[in-house]
Amino acid sequence: MKKFLKIYKWSGLSFLVLLLSASCSEDFTNRPSEDSISLDAYYSSNDQVTAATNGLYSRTWFQFNNKFFYAVAEVGSGNMYTNSSDVNAMRTFALNGSDPELNNGWQALWANIAQSNAIINFLETRVGPNVDAAVLQNTIGEAHFMRATAYFYLVRLWGAVPIIENNLDYVSTPAINTNPVEDIYKFIESDYLTAADKLFAKVRGANYANNGHVSKGSARAMLAKVYLTNKEYAKSKAMAELVINSGEFKLLGGTELPNKSFGDLFSYSNNNNEESIFALQWKGDGQYGSANNCNTQFGISTSDVSTSNATYGGVFAPSQDVLNIFSSADLRRKATIMLPGDEYPNVKIAPSGGILIVPEADEIGGQGAGAAIKKYCLGVVNGNVTGPVDTWGMMDNNTYIMRYADLLLVHAEATMGGGANTSDGGALKSYNAVLNRAGLPSVASITADDILKQRRLELCFEGDYWFDLGRIERSKAIAIMTAQNRGDKDSAEYFTPDQNDFLLSYPDNDVAKNPKLLDPPVPYEFK
Questions:
Q1: Are 466 and 72 in contact (CB under 8 A)?
Q2: What range(s) does the RagB/SusD domain occupy (predicted)?
């Protein structure tokens, strides 16, 4: 399927203004060139307007999700181990601005912002009279949501960055200052609030096909996490409770969905389930970058348990540190980490089609970790369990950016209000719901350390632990990472980050084009 883009090259941050482009999956509307058809005629129906944001759920995120996200958030935090030269710099806190994957992640986030900006600024004037106002505003709300999410990653990873509301404002003057972190968070909060105002309300039901796009609840849940990051505990608690009380989301395997389980979250057939707040929507279409690469990059590297047409695998593995954090009673362990002897009836091997029994530690391959990652690892094609596979061994299972268990832990922590512990009934209800789904008993009080640990256990390999460590007292975070064994199963290795390692370097090529990235941030003039 053709993808039509209007591209404005920006020498400073290499931004692409992707004017209302479409993703390349079969679900997305094929758009003719803007030069050959009037936009008013083109966006003449509700379906066409609804499809305008489809690309923002997949391809614009690919180079962020493909390697960079895990190389920083999971290897950096000490959850994952790798010795692959393209992704191992954060294991030793040696990542710098010349790193290609750092550049890929940076560019992907700005591509999301550029495409969101195009929709926010231009879509409303390019629709026909038959488009419902509510549909139009919902689509614009999705763009505000995506822009806020991209900035939420940028500010936590790089700190001060430029706030861009309309890329066309800078085509002739591409050198631009960064803005202060507090201004970026103000902008993020404004975008999520706008999104919550414009987006449709939903209740996530069993018809998963209707759950893919974000909703009011999605925006409010992400905003609760932003407030928590900024230690605005009362706002975070109130926003989280608004979402919880709405009944939009449910835990798979919780009291409302007892026939599902934690492990079901990561199967293809459960894409866009009741727990999914926001997930990237992958759809293989024959083009590189349309599907999810985790099945090969997380799995056992031997050919009989990788996808049938992939000749590589096991780029990322569990760290030695993370192998020891799950108790024997925790149902999440087997759905998170594959250990020798584990059996997975739904994971098929080639060529026999038998079930996967994890081999001995020395035979697992990959990175020599003696274990493999189970989350997002589906095995060879197995009907609706895995969905299809493309030429590069990539599959269509979603990638979570936020799910309901995360929000429940946000609520528990926000209720604690920055204190050391709590026995508040509301906090315990949220916290214990996550524990009980994992097969663990309820507790009568919780500490800040309990929540940090449960967030690591629940969200391991989903890209959150790095940001959680970034929220706590810096000396404590450094002590945690210094104590982590960051080696393989045969050789322990330890590394100590310093204060500067918690923010990434700007890409060298962008600094060369826009030296103002290194200047002091300039306060943003809000409109």
A1: yes
A2: 275-517
Q: Alpha helices of 59-180 — where are they, by DSSP H?
A: 62-63, 69-73, 100-122, 133-158
Residue 426 belongs to a domain: no
Looking at residue 379, what is its pLDDT? 86
pLDDT of residue 17: 35
How is residue 65 annotated by DSSP? I
In a domain, 409, yes or no: no
Number of domains in the chain: 2
Q: What is the pLDDT of residue 319?
A: 97
Considering 395, 411, 429, which residue would you say is the last residue of a domain? 395
Strand (E) or helix (H) holding 465:
helix 465-471
- Any idea how long the chain is? 527
Domain region containing 174 = 1-199+497-527
Round to whole Å and give the CA distance between 96 and 90: 9
- Sorted by sequence, the CB contacts under 8 Å of residue 23 that are 6+ apart come out as 3, 54, 55, 57, 58, 59, 283, 290
Contact 411, 427 (CB under 8 A): yes
Instruction: Please name the residue that has the structure tokens 């020395």.
Output: 362
**Distance between CA atoms of 512 and 522, rounded to whole angstroms?**
19
- What DSSP designation does 364 have? S
49 within 8 A of 22, measured Cβ to Cβ:
no
Query: With 50 as the cut, is the pLDDT of residue 95 above it?
Result: yes
> What SS3 class is residue 279?
strand
237 domain residue, yes or no: no
Query: What confidence tens digit (pLDDT) does each residue in 140-198 have?
Result: 999 999 999 999 999 999 999 999 999 999 888 889 999 999 999 999 999 999 999 99
Which single residue is written with the structure tokens 């926010």? Answer: 120
Residue whose pair of structure tokens reads 């003449």 in the numeric block: 44
Sign of CA dihedral 53, 47, 398, 378: negative
DSSP for 476-498 reads HHHHHHHTS--S-SSS-------
User: Which residues pair with residue 357 across a beta bridge?
Assistant: 343
Position of tokens 């090259």? Answer: 9
Task: Report the alpha-carbon distance of residue 428 to residue 440 in Å, rounded.
Answer: 14
pLDDT in tens, 256-308: 999 999 999 999 999 999 999 999 999 999 899 999 999 888 877 654 555 44
Give the number of other Cβ atoms within 10 Å of residue 255's Cβ.
10
SS3 call for 433: helix
- Tokens 């009673």 correspond to 329
CATH of the domain at 119: 1.25.40.390
Q: Using alpha carbons only, give the angle 23, 513, 516 rounded to the nearest 5 degrees.
A: 105
| 186, 314: one domain | no
Q: What ranges in 123-232 are assigned the alpha helix state H?
A: 133-158, 181-198, 216-229
Task: Give a yes or no: residue 144 inside a domain.
Answer: yes
Structure tokens at 25: 């999956």
pLDDT band at 442 (very low <50, low <70, confident <90, very high): very high
- What number of CA atoms fall less than 13 Å from residue 392's CA on the CB side? 17
Q: Which residues contact 122 (CB under 8 A, 6 or more apart)?
A: 19, 20
Last residue of a domain, one of 362, 395, 428: 395
